[in-house]
Every structure is written in structure tokens, then in C-alpha cells.
Amino acid sequence: MTQQELKSAFEKIYGQPADGLYFAPGRVNLIGEHTDYNGGYVFPCALSFGTYLLIRKNGGNTVRFRSLNQPDAVEVPLDKLTTRLDNSWANYLIGVFAQFIKKGVKINEGFDILIWGDVPAGAGLSSSASLEVVTAYALNDQLKTGYDRTELALMSQKAEHEFALVNCGIMDQFAAAQGKKDHAIFLNCDTLEFDLVPVKLNGIKVLISNTHSPHKLDSGAYNQRVAECKKAVEQLNKVRPIKYLAELTEEEFKKIESAITDETAKKRARHVVSEVQRTKDAVKALRAGDILQFGKLMNASHVSLRDDYEVTGPELDTMVEEAWKIDGVIGSRMTGGGFGGCTVSLVKDEATDTFIKNVGSAYEAKIGIKPEFYIAEIGDGACRLS
């Protein structure tokens, strides 16, 4: 939809024009998966598609939420903005309001809000973080609270923990808030220090493949992985005090991994420690212009996510294995939380049509679902559009 169409839709629903139009992007993670809540490094970039939010102060004592992607309207009194609703899409936004109120921000009048997003839901491209961050950015602007982008990302992450009940790391919200066009974010999820690294892919495209097998992080499997990593840390602490798995080098981990008596927790820890190293190596390779090495590390990341972390499944594995067969594919791996969703591949320009045709038909033949492909454009983080 165009910005003008969104503004017209707002006026049609609420009878008044919006005061402001805001945007926050989805993200794709190039490498560094399931390391963020383990204090490790990630390497995401913001995408050119995302979530749009239109807002106006309504002078009343309720906040009215509407989405062009959802059928139901939600209305919440100002004194109930810290209370989670049962099974409502609006929890992502209410959770953000709650974070402002918890910081002592006084919300004395209501708002009318309209949402529209073009991040495919359930694709693992962070539609939820995009929604949280655009809400935080808009409220920060409307209420003149002056929080910086990192603080808005942290508030959005808290909203996800407390209102969507997913114990996510900081990566998705951080990418939506801090993204920069044609750059990826090399982020230390423990300290929140980050570098914006130019993504110069001469003659190579970032190609996202949507399995159309939606990943459901709140199904419990994601929170289970978080718990398994915590168990590994607890058992390792008997021989070496650490807060996060990411503090260990691969060499250090090999020396003390026998302290983890739970075999599943040991596999999870092995993935995290090796993935942190792969992410550092991949960024080094990209800075040096060694795209082939970057691609090899992407492939190794997928294998580790498949075998040690067990978050891929037949859809993602088929998509990646078919990609690996195509001449001109530099690297391919699952991206996001897993259990469905998307893969990300680096593909030479001349191979993109073959990739879409061959991988698409092979995937459909094996899985029985028609996939979708997007050539990613790396965009900016949250902003006010008008």
C-alpha cells in the first residue's frame, strides 16, 4: 500500500487524519543464530519491508488499535495499558505502552492507531519485532520522551517477553531500531556494542526463500532451547564460572564440555560456542572481501543448527539442500528462530533465475508447498515518514 492509501484508510476508520506515519523494518540475519540470548554475536540487516503505524491523539481515555492485517478492532482504557489480553494481536503494542508506563511516563490521553505490515507473518523475518519497534518509536516521538534507539529496542524486547511470552534475545528489535541501508549490524548481544559493516556484494544478491511453513516461536520449542542453554551454563559453572555460553572459545569448551551431563544441553552449547566463532570469522571475511569464505561459514551454520541445535526441520533442510545444488550459490542457511520460516542465500546475479525456478520446483515436489522468494534490499531502521 502507498503512504497515501494508508492515510486515507486511517481517516476512513477514525474520521480524522493521522498526526504521524512511522515505519520499522523486518530483518534477516546473515549469520549468528540462537546466539543472542546466549550473550554472543549476531549479524543481521534491516530489510526494506516492515510495519507502518499511523497515530493520532484522540482526546479520550482509551487507546484504539486497528490493523489492516487483522480482522478485529481492540480498545483499551488508559488504566489497563499494563494488562495483557488473552490471544490478541494487540499485545505486541500494549506491551510497548506498558514499558513506557513502567518507566514513569504519564499517558494522559488516548490514541487512535492503525497498523499495516508487509513482512510475511510467520516467515521468521521479525514481523513481531518490527511491530514493537515501530510502536516504541512512534510513542517516543509523540510523547517526547527522548529515549535513544537502543533503549527503544530494549523496551520492545521486554514487551515481547512479558506480553507475547517469548524469551527472545535482543537481535530482532535491535536490527529494527538501528538498521542502516546497505549495512549489516555486527552486534555483541551481551554489551550491545555494535559496528555497522558495509555489505558490498558485487554481482551477488541476498535471496530470501520462504518455506511457507510458519514458524511458531511461542509454541514452546524456542523457550525450551533457552532453558537447555541455561542448564548447560549451570552445569559448566561447577568447573568454570560463566554467565553466558558465548564467553567460551571452542578450545575452552572442548576442555570442560564433559561437565554437561545432559547430552541435549551439551549439543545446544556446542552449537552456540561454534556459531559465535563462525559469526566473528564471517564478519572478518566480509570486511576482507572474501565472500566465498563467508558462504562456507553460512553453510556450516546451517549444519550446526540442524544437527546440534535441532531447529531446522524438513522444510528448511530441503530448501537449503536444494540451494546447495545450484551453481552460483555462495552459501545458504536457515535464518531466524527456525521450525519453519525462511532461508537466506548469497546467489550470483546470473544464477538467481535458475535458483528460483529449480529450488522452487524441487521444494514443492518434495514438501508439497509452493515457496516464495524475495531479493532482499537492505534498508534503514525505524523512522518517521510524515
Order of helices and strands: HEEEEEHEHHHEEEHHHHHEEHEE
- Report the average pLDDT across residues: 96
What would the principal axes of the Cα set say about the shape?
A: globular
Radius of gyration: 21 Å
Percent strand: 15-25%
Total helical elements = 11
Spatial order of the strands in the main sheet? Answer: 5-4-6-3-1-13
Give helix % range: 40-55%
Question: What is the quaternary state of this protein?
Answer: single chain
Number of strands: 13
Largest sheet: 6 strands, mixed
CATH topology of the domain at 3-198: Ribosomal Protein S5, domain 2
Spans with pLDDT under 50 lasting ≥5 residues?
none
The helix/strand class is alpha+beta
Alpha carbon gap, first and last residue: 15 Å
User: What CATH architecture label of the domain at 3-198 applies?
Assistant: 2-Layer Sandwich
Given this structure, which CATH class of the domain at 3-198 is correct? Alpha Beta
Q: What would you say this structure looks like, in words?
A:
The protein is of the alpha+beta class and 386 residues long. The chain has a domain at 3-198: Ribosomal Protein S5, domain 2, CATH 3.30.230.10. The protein has eleven helices and 13 strands. It has helices at residues 3-14, 91-102, 127-142, 149-164, 171-178, 221-236, 250-256, 263-287, 291-307, 313-324, 352-367, and strands spanning 20-29, 41-42, 44-57, 62-67, 74-77, 111-117, 183-188, 194-198, 204-210, 329-335, 342-348, 372-375, 383-384. The strands form three sheets. The chain has a six-stranded mixed beta sheet, with helices on both faces. Strand 4 (62-67) and strand 5 (74-77) form a beta hairpin. Helix 2 packs across helix 3 (127-142). It is globular and about 60 Å long. The two termini are 15 Å apart.
